[in-house]
Known about the structure:
CATH topology: Growth Hormone, Chain: A
Mean pLDDT: 86
Largest sheet: none
CATH architecture: Up-down Bundle
Amino acid sequence: MSTTSTAANKGSYTTSILIIGMLFFIFGFVTWLNGALIPFLKLACDLKTDTQAFLVTFAFYMAYFFLALPSSIILEKTGFKNGMALGLLVMALGSVIFIPAAQSRSFALFLTGLFVQGAGLSLLQTASNPYISVIGPIESAAQRISIMGICNKIAGALSPIILGAIVLKGANEITAQVANAQSAMQKAELLDNLAARVITPYTVMAVILALLALMIQRSSLPEINLDENEGNSADTALSASRTSVFQFPNLLMGVLGIFCFVGAEVMAGDVISIYGQNLGFSLDTAKYFTTFTLLAMLLGYVIGIVTIPKYISQETSLKYGAILGIVLVAGAYFLNGRAAVTCIALLGLANAPMWPAIFPLGIRGLGRFTKIGSAMLIMGIAGGAIIPLIYGSLSDDENIGFRLAFMLTLLPCYAYILFFALKEGRRARFFA
């Protein structure tokens, strides 16, 4: 290969990384807005229970379950670049739905907007995650995804601060005014004014997403061939001998691993504010707790970039993350006040190596089944819908309470991820 060709390929690779990094920034910003939306909508829509409030995450993440497989079909027809642009446009439509939702203060319409946003993200994630996994050697995929994770979590740390400052400004005062309202009309007026606060930020978001869609469509992002297996000879032979995607145990276990991880990630990032309020923190304070979790996760991604695969393998980092998760969940149960909140925030550090490791381990050796396998892994994101809802239901039970509910919900998740890490560690040694 000539020097000119090598330089061109390197430039194309760098450009692709930058474009996908920008998309991961968008993922993070939109996804982690839920941390501020949950307490906001609980107040603005006058919701009575935590279970109702967690329908926010349910509507958002269930879109991945229903749209992941159709997304893979769409990408077959559009290609990656046009598919990503389409995903951004769908997200813009979801943002637009927030405008009539705020004007009517309709919780159902807010949930519809969240579902549509999740649908757009499903298309984007189905394209971008396998793209970044196979654009280079599969052994360093966790390192590349960690770089994407930094883009994602920087945005995620900023989004609840920005939205919280806009829609939850003076939250304690508003809560007191609503509680002391002299009539139903006065209460409705207060809540209508509060709900209207989301109109401007979501209008701006819709415009930005539409402009990004146009930019992606006109970009130089190259197509990749996912049917070409990037693994070693043993993986290639394995792929050639299989006739169905369901014949890959690492994929099926990876789907459940993603389900458990995303559920745990959402619990640590979105549920922490409600957990903090239950511990006695004011809403004005608790609305920033999501940012602490994401900063811890950001630190974990930096550690992953430095250590993987130079010092530890993807499987080993996943194992340590799961063990740390188990310890921190126990700490959140037994400790009180700031110590308990700190344990939950530090779950971000435990969760950091999980997506970067589980996704490439799940698609390893799939060859021509990579596209459908990636879509199945994206379906596992539905854990972010189901697990917080289970927590909400358990925490509303007076015989269980929010503390025990948190531990009962998360310990099985981290235990399974530990099992998956150990299993894949043995598999990696076998195929080495």
